[in-house]
Amino acid sequence: MYKSYRAPNPGENRQWFVVDAKGQPLGRLAVVVANKLRAKDLPTFDPSVDAGAFVIVVNAAEVKLTGKKEEQKEYQRYSGYRGGLKRFTAEEMRASHPDRMISEAVWGMLPKNNIARKMMTRLKVFAGPEHTHAAQKPVEIKL
What's the pTM? Predict the structure, then answer.
């Protein structure tokens, strides 16, 4: 008789990874980060089990956008009130909140469910080269 294997939730034993976004295209970086958060790179991948790792992204302000996306790509926020729609170009977003560019790109690549919301709490994005998670001894990912 065959038995199904279900990957256990790693709990406190999750791995930590650090990714340098300097000069990397935004979409390609977001794919790597989303796969680590989701544990899609592991042989025991199960979409219903949250077995992903913590991911730290540094140098978010220096992520690369190809083509004319710097001027043409738009981000939207809605406050919930009438007339509360705000639009920002990627250039304005990079100037004010460079970490949100990466967070929104990664969020777009995850399934929209409760597990994905937990995964997003494990994404740590920093605009500069320093991060506050050195004690976790993250492994660097080369892109």
Answer: 0.91
